[in-house]
Amino acid sequence: MNIAKSGYRVFSANSSVACTELAKKITERLGVELGKSVVFQESNRETRVDVKESVRGQTIFIIQTIPRDVNTAIMELLVMAYALKTSCAKNIIGVIPYFPYSKQCKMRKRGSIVSKLLASMLAKAGLTHIITMDLHQKEIQGFFSFPVDNLRASPFLIQFIQEEIPDYRNAIIVAKSPSAAKRAQSYAERLRLGLAVIHGEAQCSESDMADGRHSPPCVRNTTGHTGLELPLMMAKEKPPITVVGDVGGRIAIIVDDIIDDVGDFVAAAEILKERGAYKIYIMATHGLLSADAPRLIEESAIDEVVVTNTVPHEVQKLQCPKIKTVDVSMILAEAIRRIHNGESMAYLFRNITVDD
Do the domains 155-202+241-326 and 8-151 match in fold? Predict the structure, then answer.
């Protein structure tokens, strides 16, 4: 394709190796050259962006992966979007495979809904559209004042299961908590496999989930105006951990959208091993793998962790050979092509349920 006549450019929003490699894979599939720009940190840690070519009147796609330094990556994206906006770009579309702060999408205690704040910042910087993948909560799309295409990685992970796991017909899809059951059910139905759910696993403490509805003190004040007599609410108690479903003599495949703090996954793997599963895989879209995750995975009963390249994790792979990567640049490139040509995006969501 002649980039001079294509009417769009693709830029990489940071200079990290992982982001540049993903951007190159996407541009190679599109048949265009990567836009010329420089993104760097000055000595005082301020982000600076220099766009080295004209973008006037063109549609610009900014590819930004999120490394460990999340806040720097966000500033790189904001500064580049604003630089392109002030350079008279027609449309600025962010390709953000993993949307940061997506876990902070609900009010907890007296905190804030940070993903809503980030959506407003991106719009103010000049973005007019977002391409992302497997948002932690699909309701996050409603935080934006412009279109959001939330792509799915499940077709690539399902293909990996079918092609790379020997005797996958003897597998069972596992949800590590009841809240993940819908996603697991979607995988199980498409692979025509059984489903198991781990129940009773501690997710987060009840105090972390407090949102103000339990504010009145438990002890009633007998002096002064008594007010309305409300019944006292009993605290929840986690039941003993159980596995709903037979995993004995089966390959257990745990599916989720994010694997970050692997403590829950390691505990789930131990339970599945005790119940007779002879191999345990974890399939997740975003492999954040923070802190000691590689070491914990290496020492655990988990046989393989399969994640996509939405998040850089080359260092973690060097520390733990159990981590495997699935390339999703194909669907990102196709989304860019379809948006630029004004084609329907429905083809990218075929055979995919809302709960996936």
Answer: yes
Q: Domain residue spans in the chain?
A: 8-151, 155-202+241-326
Parallel, antiparallel, or unpaired for β 279-287 and 251-259?
parallel
Give me the residues paired with residue 39 across strands. 49
CATH class of 8-151: alpha beta
Q: What is the largest CA-CA distance in the chain?
A: 81
The runs of H, that is alpha helices, within the chain are 3-6, 17-30, 70-86, 114-125, 154-164, 181-191, 263-274, 293-299, 314-319, 329-341
Give the 3-state DSSP-derived string for 205-232, with helices as H, strands as E and coil as C. Answer: CCCCCCCCCCCCCCCCCCCCCCCCCCCC
CA distance linking residue 160 with residue 142, whole number of Å: 32
Cα–Cα distance for residue pair 196/43, rounded to 1 Å: 53
Assess whether pLDDT exceeds 90 at residue 207: no
Structure-token match 């979007």, residue found: 81
Tokens of 163: 């092609």
Residue 222 predicted with pLDDT over 80: no
Q: If you ran DSSP here, which 8-state letter would residue 301 be given?
A: S
pLDDT of residue 104: 87
pTM, 2 dp? 0.86
Answer for the pair 118, 105: CB distance below 8 angstroms, yes or no: no
Tokens 């080359």, residue?
Answer: 314
Q: Strand, coil or helix: what is 257?
A: strand
3-17 confidence digits (pLDDT tens): 444 589 999 987 677
| C-beta of residue 148 within 8 angstroms of C-beta of residue 130 | yes
Which helix (H) or strand (E) segment is 258 a member of? Answer: strand 251-259
pLDDT at site 6: 59
The CATH label, of 3.90.209.20, 3.40.50.2020, 1.20.1440.230, 3.40.50.720, for the domain at 155-202+241-326 is: 3.40.50.2020
State the DSSP string of 111-137: ---HHHHHHHHHHHHT--EEEEE--SS
Measured CA to CA, the distance from residue 306 to residue 282 in angstroms comes to 6
pLDDT tens-digit profile of 156-165? 999 999 999 9
Q: What is the pLDDT of residues 187-201, one digit of tens each?
A: 999 999 999 999 875
